[in-house]
Amino acid sequence: MENETVSRNFIENIIDKDLAEGVYDCVHTRFPPEPNGYLHIGHAKSILLNYGLAQKYNGKFNMRFDDTNPTKEKEEFVESIKEDIQWLGADWEDRLYFASDYFQQMYEAALKLIDKGKAYVCDLSSEEIREYRGTLKEPGKESPFRNRSVEENRKLFQEMKEGKYQDGEKVLRAKIDMASPNMNMRDPVIYRVAHMEHHRTGDQWCIYPMYDFAHPIEDAIEGITHSICTLEFEDHRPLYDWVVQELEYPVPPKQIEFAKLYLTNVVTGKRYIKKLVEEGIVDGWDDPRLVSIAALRRRGFTPESIKMFVDLCGVSKANSSVDYAMLEYCIREDLKLKRPRMMAVLDPVKLIIDNYPEDQIEYLDAPNNLENEELGSRKIPFGRELYIERDDFMENPPKKYFRLFPGNEVRLMNAYFVKCESFVKDENGVVTEIHCTYDPETKCGSGFTGRKVKGTIHWVPAQEAKQVKVRLYENIIDEEKGVYNEDGSLNLNPNSLKEVTAYVEPMLAEAKAFESFQFVRNGYFCVDFRDSEENAPVFNRIVSLKSSFKLPKK
Ligand code: ATP
Ligand code: MG
């Protein structure tokens, strides 16, 4: 992986060679989703790969809905897919296509094969076709309909188109080789009868092309040079090549396969996500615990972070699974310098500064990002009563605990040193108040050079702080036990969503949907666009600050 960011990936090597040898004089790629679900992180890899190659070689990138299968397509997915791709920054300019717009050309292509004696109408049932196909060890058997004349095939195919036959009664098959070691070449079905409404062409057609026949035609029509797909299509490549060759396209496109992107212990399968949505375990396809592109966007991931992730993953022919921690690393890296660092207390306990004037409020300066001065600074109100994190105080601290405990002095971030004098517990032994004294000399930025303290803790002013809902996430899968149970169901983590009421700096109450912030020590958070209201933002934790991921050394 280390080298891939600097050296060229194997697809670029193929393209370089093609350009050098004059196989193609430009690069034209496409992203061809079936509009049958939401896109996920794996699709993002394919989108950015295809778009990135077009950019790199000064070529073109097409967006094409592969909607040749009328059973599964849904209009709602067309819109969500377009939105996701635009958000990722892949620009198809004016080249948005639908494979269903090519149905007439595909039909004519089929006729051309018939005329060349390379396709025939077959009356075998689908079970019979399967039986005749043979096995990996044994060659297949030729269909009794294989040697129909061109005239008869033309007539029957026309009749299929005109609706004379029921679904499954007849199919059109490519005439290739029933003994081929590649099962895909044993006279594959290329057209079937299906009396079904199509989401775009309605009932105009009752025959539909099969994927392996349609896809190369779509590519060829659009002038695609490098048709990039995932590994499971490797065995289909000879058929792809056969189709473009028999149809005699002047510049045939070339299929190249790469390995899918998988995330360890993360579910992407449509079937599973659909179930989670239907059972109300998640609140939709964009629930922030999912890795659909819409979910990642809602959670607060940025297009830049996803691009960085995909680049780090590299492109290869070997299937592998990437740790989610790497995705987290990328969003931290992206937000680190861009977003302000604010104070929010997720698990509050009150801190009272007994020697601070009772009604006094002062406004203290706080830099917005210590590593990026350009983000400026802000004023935070400070008073006698504050909230701090419950775990920033311990009655009986272990060694190396540098935060508050009786008798210890710490720095309140952007404010003063305070020393813990006493604390109050309720009848259950829960600490309810921590009493401190402060030293006015130690004001942050005052140039105080006296004694040092080892701990700095964050806080919010008790009066002025706003209460907001904060959602903390864990993997929706219980990682300890693996993704699936024995019965094939998902092994869910009951703690994947925890909602708390946090106290935050007053200005955070005005945060708008999709705005993100670092909350000191607690992570990066983004305003949920679905559940937030005016002056009542709901914050989703994008990622905590602790990292278990280390970038491999170059
Ligand atoms: P799924 O079966 O997971 O729903 P799909 O392959 O059916 O995915 P398509 O809409 O057919 O989804 O895919 C569009 C493009 O995205 C294809 O070129 C496909 O190869 C690619 N793609 C799908 N999943 C991944 C993945 N996990 N990693 C990389 N590319 C992928
Ligand atoms: Mg598919």
Description:
The protein has 4 domains: 10-258, Rossmann fold (3-Layer(aba) Sandwich); 262-335, Orthogonal Bundle (Glutamyl-tRNA Synthetase, domain 2), CATH 1.10.1160.10; 348-461, Ribosomal Protein L25, Chain P (Beta Barrel), CATH 2.40.240.10; 466-543, Beta Barrel (Ribosomal Protein L25, Chain P), CATH 2.40.240. It is built from 12 helices and 27 strands. It has helices at 10-20, 41-56, 75-88, 103-115, 126-132, 150-162, 211-222, 237-246, 270-278, 293-299, 303-313, 324-336, and strands at 28-31, 60-65, 96-98, 119-122, 171-174, 189-193, 207-209, 226-230, 254-258, 261-263, 320-322, 341-342, 344-345, 348-353, 362-367, 377-382, 385-389, 409-412, 417-425, 431-439, 456-457, 460-461, 466-473, 497-504, 516-519, 523-527, 538-543. α7 (211-222) crosses α8 and α11 (303-313) packs across α12. The longest helix is centred in the N-terminal third of the chain and has 16 residues, at 41-56. It starts with 9 loop residues before the first helix and ends in an 11-residue tail after the last strand. Bound molecules: adenosine-5'-triphosphate and magnesium ion. Residues 32-34, 37, 42-43, 45-46, 229-230, 260-261, 270 line the site of adenosine-5'-triphosphate (ATP).
Structure summary:
The chain has 554 residues and is of the alpha/beta class. Helices cover 25% and strands 23% of the residues.
